[in-house]
Amino acid sequence: MAFDLITRPFWRWPAVFEDDEDWLVPATGTPGGITISEDDKNVFVSASLPGVAENDIDVTFDKGSLWIKGESRQEEENKKLKYYRKATSSFSYRVAVPGELDPNVEPDAAYKNGVMTVKFTKTPASQPKKITVRSKK
């Protein structure tokens, strides 16, 4: 049976890639640990980055995309038990920031208790306008 698979002409092999090419399509949506919210004047992007030091985070905003990159490092040593552990991990998130953002206002990033929040200011034209309702006489 195994020999039959090896000697089978290629045109008779199962069409592995023809039936299900969905795995080639990039994932869409928001990465886990990322929250996008907004109010009347701002758009907020919050990222959960537990165990990452503030100076190990690189944040870039370019052409409507927010890039959050970083690395976390952990080291443990116990000479009494002759134990040493070192672990590193890196991450990279790309998030499309929705809305019309004001290019004249610099985004503000703050990091507290493992959560980084970036605040973007909307353009005045995209902010909601209050409309007064008058009674018709």
UniProtKB/TrEMBL annotation:
Pfam family, one: HSP20
Residue ranges annotated for the SHSP domain, each copy included: 24-136
Entry coiled-coil feature ranges: none
Domain of life: Bacteria
PANTHER family: HEAT-SHOCK PROTEIN 20 FAMILY MEMBER
Similarity comment: family membership: Belongs to the small heat shock protein (HSP20) family.
UniProt-recorded name of the protein: SHSP domain-containing protein
